[in-house]
Amino acid sequence: MLDLKFFRGKKIFITGHTGFKGSWLTYILYLSGAKIAGYSLKPKYKFDNFYLLKLENKIENIFGDVRDEKNLSKKIKKFKPDIIFHLAAQPLVKDSYLDSKFTFTTNIIGTLNILEAIKNTKSIKSAVIITSDKCYKNYEKRSGYSENDELGGKDPYSASKAAAENIFYSYKESFFQKKKKLGLVSVRAGNVIGGGDWSKDRIIPDFIKSIIHNQKFTLRSPKATRPWQHIFDLLNGYLILSKKIYGRSNYNGSWNFGPAKGNVTVKEVVLRLVEIMGVKKRIFVKKDMNLEETGLLSLKINKSKKYLKWKPKLSFIKTLKMTAHWYQCYIYDKKNIDKLSKKQFTSFFYD
């Protein structure tokens, strides 16, 4: 199990720290004693996880755009981080159709800018670039995808992530081969769930909103399967990897993280949540979006298991229960959401 004491006193720069993954990563590292600077666009909502976890006053908080190379580079050089996590992105497939230019520039130019900053900042010993499982050219094969499989994507989001991976590989091979004391990796993961996700057009946040507003729930692509995983399991992988590569380049490359066992359909996820939360069964209607999105997508995680000794800790049911309990606390006992968040963190990382 990861020893979080490693991060105590480390200077860590996180892009996308106001997002779902980024806010939890920031929270975990803050509780572990790290000195953190976060660089991201402002959260969209007052109930975003960033505000619920009261992170704004716990770190050096910078609101900025990763496409702004000059500002991003300036902030990184000034902070002189030991470790960088790059999570800033446009993360939604549907939004990539609605604003493809923003998606491509954020996910591609943003990654390019962060790699340039890493290349020119001597203090950095570990850099983790987050992309997506959708970077793989998807043939919907049941065996899943390994790190050396073909990249590509039909929709703008997937294509942008494949492009970001190609840029990462080019920089790794062209500029970081001689930097033996810098670890540089990209990370690919699937659907992550957990408390604090309010993104639109995501199954669990949309379901929770339907409960809060007492509305009919519209289920999109009910037969689609995804490698569902709790946010803590994934971030545990990120942190183990960042520690493993710290000050060494022999693990540079791309890494998959995903759940241990098979995929589960979108419909089963929602039906299980109905059961766990004890809410009224809602009317599920298949929504015809006429937008192409992959139905079957899974990852092989052999590399992470072998070299990092990492494996998912939580079962699918435990993942759903932890997620449901967080949202129940938010709905019925919001004043204690920070207390529950800390309790879930402690239970996962220390018990």
- Quote the average pLDDT: 93
Second CATH tier, the architecture:
3-Layer(aba) Sandwich
Q: Main sheet? A: 7 strands, parallel
- Structural class, judged by helices and strands? alpha/beta
**Residues in helix, %:** 40-55%
Proportion in β-strands:
5-15%
Oligomer: single chain
Low-pLDDT stretches are none
Order of helices and strands: EHEHEHEHHEHEEHEEEHEEHEHHH
What does this structure look like?
- The protein has a seven-stranded parallel beta sheet, sandwiched between helices.
- By secondary structure, the chain is of the alpha/beta class.
- Helix 3 (69-79) packs parallel to helix 5 (100-119).
- It has a single domain (4-350), classed as NAD(P)-binding Rossmann-like Domain (Rossmann fold, 3-Layer(aba) Sandwich).
- The chain contains twelve helices and 13 strands.
Q: What are the salient characteristics of this protein?
A:
single chain, 351 residues, alpha/beta, Rossmann fold, seven-stranded parallel beta sheet, two-stranded parallel sheet, globular
Summarize the structure.
This protein has 351 residues and is α/β, with parallel strands linked by helices. The chain has helices spanning 20-31, 49-52, 69-79, 93-98, 100-119, 156-175, 203-212, 231-244, 266-277, 302-308, 316-332, 337-350, and strands at 11-15, 35-40, 60-63, 83-86, 126-130, 183-189, 192-193, 218-219, 225-226, 229-230, 253-257, 264-265, 285-286. β1, α1 (20-31) and β2 (35-40) form a beta-alpha-beta unit.
